[in-house]
Amino acid sequence: MLSLVATGTPFVKATYYRQLSVRFDRVPGAFERRMQNISHLMAARGLDWLRGLKPQQNIGANVEPRLTAFLAPLFDELEPTPEYADEFVEPSRVVEGAKKQVTVNAYERDSAAKPRCISRWGIACVVCSFDFGAAYGELGEGFIHVHHLRPIHTIGESYELDPENDLRPVCPNCHSMLHRRKSALSIEELLDHLKWHFVAPLPGE
Asked: Is the pTM of this model over 0.85?
C-alpha cells in the first residue's frame, strides 16, 4: 500500500485485508491493527504514515522490538539522507539562498561562514564535545562539520546568514543524529538524548 501511495495509485484497504484474511486465517480487522502498529513506528521516526491508519498508542513491549527489527530495511530506505551544511560550498557567494539546480535543489553557501562559526563557538562539537585535533592529532586539526540551526530548505532566496547565531560546530555523528528524524532536532533536544561526552586524552596517553 505504501508503494501505491507513493505513485498516486488508488486502492481499497479492505481488499487487501480480505486477501490477507484468507491467506492467514484471521479476521480482516486484525490486519488493520497491525498496520496501525507500523504507523506508530513510522510516526516515532518522523516518517509519514498512511492516511486512514492512525498510529496505535501502545503496541506492546514485546511487539515493538520485533516489528522494529523486521521493518529496519524499510525505515533505512524511507528516512531522508541529511543534507549537511558542509556540502555544495560556493566560495564566491556571501548571501545564502540563491537556489541552483543539481540533481535536487540545493543552496549555495558562503565559504566564510564556517570559519566565523568556529571562531565564535570553537572547534569542538557543541553536543558531545568531540575534538578531532585532540583525538587524531595533526590529521584531525581543524576538522568539524557545521550545522544550520534553520533548515536550509526553509530559507528565502536572499537569506542573510549570521554565522555566529545561525551555525554551530558539530561532529559528523551528532550531525547525523540532529537530522535523524524528518524534522531536525534542536541542539538542546539532542543533548537530552546524549549518554556520553568526549574527554580529551591527556598528553602522552
From this structure: no
